[in-house]
Amino acid sequence: MTYRLGVDVGGTFTDILLIDEDTGDTYRAKTSSTPEDQSIGVLRGIERACTAAGVRMSEIGEVFHGTTVATNAILEGKGARVGLVTTDGFRQVLQIARSFVPGGLAGWIIWPKPEPLAALEDTVEVVGRIGAHGDVVTELDEEDVRAKLRTLRSRGIEALSVSLINSYANPAHERRVAELAAEELPGMSVSISSSVLPELREYERTITTVANAVVQPQVARYVANLESQLREAGVDGRLCILRSDGGLVSAAVAADSPVNLLLSGPAGGVTGATWVAEQAGYPDFLTFDMGGTSTDVALVQNLTPRVGRETTVGDLKVRATSVDVRTVGAGGGSIAHVPPLTQALRVGPQSAGASPGPAAYAAGGNQPTVTDANVVLGYLPTDLAGGEITLDRDAARAAVKPIADATGLESTEAAAAGIVDIVNENMFGALRLVSVQQGFDPRDFALVAFGGAGPLHANALGKLTGAWPVIIPPSPGVLCAYGDATTNLRNETVRTLVRRFGELTDDSLRELLDELAGKVRASLVEQAVAEEDQRVVYSVDLRYHGQGFEIPIPVDLDTFDGDGGGLAALRTAFDTEHQRLFSFVLDTEHELVTVRATAHGPRPDVTSPELEAGDEDPRHAVRAHHSIWVEGSELTAAVYDREQLRAGNVVAGPAIITEMDSTTLVLPEHAATVHRSGCLLIRPIAREC
Hints:
InterPro entries: ACX-like_C, ATPase_NBD, Hydant_A_N, Hydantoinase_A, Oxoprolinase-like. This protein is α+β, with helices and mostly antiparallel strands. It has 17 helices and 37 strands.
């Protein structure tokens, strides 16, 4: 038998999922994250999963890892000190940036502009110039380059980024600067924009390249350290890292281009949700991933996650392909507080994290969190993570009581209910960003809820959005790890080619697509994926001539059949998408800006397990009854063991369904039907008939 392992490191917990590829059986482990060195929590979790499965670590064939190392380096400002080499006259490209200020009309008054990732004193200009069409306007002055590199060395930079004007059209000067840097700054990591992002727009290309350089040393150290520890522990399988777009790359490629890992963790959740939604038969759905620190949401159509061309982490926005995930600071560890000036209850974005954690963890925390509110309301059992964490109800009540006092609410339960209601509204707002704001009606989608805290709030989010059924996958607390283990190797290549449609033909565009396909196929061959096992998909970024932004449009190669239908199909697809997004189209010539080819390796052949069939009666799975607080009154809820439920069982609310890594709350007037795939499908009872 062979095993594959999914690893997801979150802000609070590290999730491990071991999958038997022959039977589809899964073995889970959930441990507290170790921010000081994530590999400690990873190795500890792997050992527990292997012990649970009764297998040796040497039997693990592949390790697939979603990591937040790059994300945390940006958010915490702990990346490398980066030097930037620019073209003469472009030294302040990062300081000028884009004219955008978040907030309302007066946002510029109070908004503290973030410091650039590469300081002005660590930025140098070199003599040399490439034209817009790739021609050499001014030869590169190599002595000037050497002198400027020595200046950066004297300033103590830890990584180097190179972004020269128009290098996307001709990378010769950048590559030569990198060669000189290898001589003047031996051993230093170097990121060049023509490799990181060979696309139009100087600022976006530069900030993305600098971001890559900022996180590269830390990611490279982490990957090398994890590989080494896996080998010492007896794991000989290949290590792959999840990209922000939901695909995998080898550890070496990930260390070289870590800017593509900034949304690695959330992308694993979307990928895992796609896997389970397919098993349950729902191709269109919203994802709702609530962890201990934050909640991530996304929209999936026809089992294909919506992919964006930008990645945002904190104040940083880079040009990197990623799943269109929106994040809010709302998790199980989010802290409730009452500002003295407004006396209005607020929840988050501050979080108690893994240490000290919520007050109910009895690990030193004393601030009221969402988890404490759920404990007070009776929604959570007395233990989490298979008994690793025991909850202290008295401590939770003591933490929430000051909220009741500050707001004048009549009871601790009412305060706890207020905390839960507010955090639900915060997450509902995020779901609207990926649905309503993008022109989609959430009532046309199912809602897949996961993460350690997601199933606890899923039923309430279903009521707010009207998205039914609410799907609770098996092992919802480790679904991100499931996504890591069930996706495929992926890589992409891109070419900027600003051409009006009148300057293009189907044949010329098809020739470029074939050229890019050959290049991206070769990159996967280097990662041990045979060419015959690959699938290549294409997309182009289009706009109306004169527009300042583009819209990505997928390319259907079948329309390029020699009859001139390819460009016509792209024109129609663009107009349709423009109409959906902005409610109008223009009678203006279309323009192609960027062409992209993405190669996919084969999807892993993992057997999907099926539950034993049963009838509608779930009473055999009842383990206890206890009181819960719902909508201002106390009710008695049955507590079910999810491991004992069978396909076809119908659990009517109010009910609590427990398992090792998560807890599901079924509200009154709703029922959860157990699907043969193991998913729970929650709907209003009126829709059950």
